[in-house]
Amino acid sequence: IQAVVSKDQLMSVVEKQVEKILFGNPTAYRVTKEIAFKLSEQALRNSFTIATGKLVEFLLADDTKEVLNANEENRPKVYTMK
Questions:
Q1: Which of 68, 70, 72 has the alpha carbon at shortest distance from 59?
Q2: Which residues in the chain come in under a pLDDT of 50?
């Protein structure tokens, strides 16, 4: 997260960013962390294989389907955190 704001705006901007994080897709966060850890442990030649596998995992996750369904149905998202 990066933003340049005045001192008076700081808390408001921080609160908005925290809110976005708290209401984000937990599966996306988990998969992103796994990719970062795996890539730091592996040689570069394996990076694309690892990232591709994790992307497929994310795209097939229930939480990803929930985002699409909730957007289509114009309702709040309800995550299962699986």
A1: 68
A2: none
